[in-house]
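Example 3.
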Amino acid sequence: MTNFIIGIAGTAKNTGKTTALAALLSEIRPEPGPTTALTSIGYDGEHFDNLTGLPKPRISVVQGEILAVAERCLHSGDAALEVLQKTDLPSPLGKIVIGRVTRPGQIVLAGPNKRRDLAAIIDRFTELGAGLTIVDGALSRIAPLAAAQALLLCTGAARHRDLNLLAAETKLVVEILKTPALKERGLAARLTSVLNRAGFDQFMAAVRKSETIHLDGIFSELYYSEFLEQAGDLAGRRLIFADSVKLLLSGDAGATRRLIDGLKAKGMRVGVGAGPNLAAVAVNPYYPKYRYDLKEYEAAYVDQDELLARLSAGLTVPVFDVVRQGGRGLYEALLGEHNITKGPDWFSRWGSL
Amino acid sequence: MPPKKVLLAPLDPVHDIALKIINRGLRDAGYETVILPPDLPPEEIIQAIIDEGAETVLISRTLGYGVAEVLARFIDLTDAAGIRDRVRVAVGGMAVHPELAQELGFDAGFGPGSTVEETIAFVDGREYVKKFNFERKREDDLSAGYSYEVRHNRIRELLGRITPLILGWAEGLTSPGVQRAAVREELWDVKKWRDHEEPEEFFAEYPKYCEESVRNFYEKGLLHPKTRLFSQKDVEKLKAYVRRSRRDLQTPHLQHKLIKPVIFNQYGTGCPYMDIAHIKASEAYGADGVIHFDPSWGARTEGLYDGFLTHQEDGTVITPANLNRIYRALEYGTLWQVRAHRGLNSPETVVLAGKIGANLTKINICYGSLGAGTDPARLTVDAIAAIKYAVQYQMPFDVVTNEELCGVPAHKALAGMLIVAHLGAALGGRPILQPLFCFSPEVMIGGQMDDNYVDFNVAKIMALRAIMDAPIWPGAPIGFLTQTEDRVQSSASTAFHASLAAMLEVDAISIASADEAYSGGPITVASRIDTLRAVSEGFRFFGHSRMQVSAQATEWAEKMIEGLERVLQAVAARGDFVQALYDGLLGSREEGAYPGRAGVNTVVKK
């Protein structure tokens, strides 16, 4: 059976990942369908934020759902779990345990926090019959979510209160995550990452000799300018990142966009090998405002209508404010016509880009 | 196998002190380390991890809002660069804790209070098992290694004469206290009691030896005034509180690099629930042991109550259930002393403490007789029985000189202490000398502490060491009467006394909460923590440094020994230790010592 993986990523802390998860689950749960599995690469569902001390949305789970949580989270709320497997995967909060919810309620969700461990957990979920896995993200971390087939990007005022800046950045991030897949052509070279001078020199040597460069890791923004300066005619050359997430992580989204445009002007195409499909964006007007007089944070909000309008403009993916609009739109965007009731064919839709 | 390679990198513009400390610890432990300078971009750190082939990476950063994103991006970059799966990465910083490390994507997080050992355990990939000092302390017998040899020839000869006088006098005598202890010993089985098996025989026999108020409890269910039974709801809350406290409890080593003195903290708020909170705070702030303080009326009452009782006065009522609840709340290794020293229930208290699991008790004759209101004859008979039970239950016991607080001069109080200690050792016991280590009326009047609190206290320790090879545990509490209602002053004064005691290499000290004398009600945990923190800072400040003993201290020690010898000569010449107590040889009415009346005429022939 196919297990369809949804990842919920954020551009910063407090951009509404857990709220979006709850909205999505509220749409999924009433539908008959395969078992849903949940986990998080961070620490979600806690009463109060680890950094700001402000209240956080809680995570509710229902009977039959499969969870992967660190041992110390097993009794973190009133939900009860039947432990199905104790893994050897470590975390700062103990080994990761897989369990099935036997009593609905709230729980702190903290699971495998790195890519390899997440992949292992998803395999276990599949073995246990999960047809849909949702992975909640953490802060702005996105690397482990490269394992997802459909990606929801959460952003909002917690990232930038300046809505012009937020809209511009979101557009760039979406474009980078939607970078098209590219196939190898001609003589190809494979490199790991460009992180320092030696790595850059090695990269440039490869560029001169090869038609296609496969980059398994990242290309540090520190060398974007030099690349553009040193590269002569790049006509017909291809630079293929392993996935769009690595391209996004290479540097500031604006600088990366300029690099891609600059290379295009010199005749080089930049693409990705695989990666998650960015299916929707969710926006959150909330941000934690620091009160210097009180030396503590308080909850604050930007204008919701303006936020939604600004971010929706010019994006190639649908944008939602789940607090006001509910989770239906997200559900449609992420699962669409290939939803749970109509058959387990999500992978064929999202698996190839 | 080559040592594991560890890369340490401050992901911070300037701060790298903690990493340097850890680096030194790792190198001392045989690890190969690479430490990077501050302010490198994440990409360079990642390249260094690749180039160095490091297996473990330790990142430090002072956290604030937004900095979490920096750390999260660093982890994402290690993932995207393909090294995250082969290196283990930990983060350290002032605001780091395991939940945050999880959220940021690290394998571990080290916050304030983390140790180099903890980091090494992470590098080794093994679970860190916190070294509970208590593992050592459980085996700590404060009396171990002492011979109780009397080093001073003339004093040895005098004590050798006095001890048989006491035992001869007590031969064939008993008291209601001794009889209750025998009933408790024979008819009260702690295991059955813990299994909720009612000791019917005990309940039938025990009240016969109690005074009316206690009999009324057993026969009519009447409680002592100002006491009440805990409800089942209270008990459940207490259990939950203990569970929660245990889960997060850490137990620092208060003494810094010193082994001694073992630190005891007094409790006795009246309420066992509050006592347990004080005990948990004491444990969390490094106390090695705790002392159960009973109410003063308990010392003047023939018989012990039963049930889980709280009490709206100073001192926590001694009952099996109260002691048992407190015992069960102790962390493994916390030393527990139950005082039995001054009143009408001494032998039975020792039996009960021994059966429930106390490590130490407190037995005394002179202070209880001269300063705490118990008849000298009664307390002598009871103390002998109490010492024998202490031997049976393998509990060392301290012998105090708190009659000094009534005005008895040090040399007389020390003479009384040595008589009881010598008697205890002769009966096979392990007595611990507990001289007063504070500001007594004698020095207030005599001016010995007008300049400093040091010399006179040093003189007492020097005198005792010159006389007997025995453990010394100044108290009780140290610094008493130097403390005021000002918590800072009180904590500082306690810390100075503790540091002096440490320099004198005594075996243990008793400290009180900073507000003990002035709380006007139950002492507060905050004050207790103030005192423990201050004492800890004192030990940290002085470490193993030692003081120069002054000529004045030496002179006073010599005078104390001379005076003490004269007192022992007088007691021996009287030929009757109990009569010597009545007659004021070990502290007179003029000095402020009054032979007690509680239990008078209760000593009978067996």
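Chain B has 25 helices and 16 strands. The interface with chain A takes residues 41, 43-44, 46-47, 50, 63, 65, 68-69, 72-73, 75-77, 79-82, 84-85, 95, 97-109 of chain B (CB under 8 Å).
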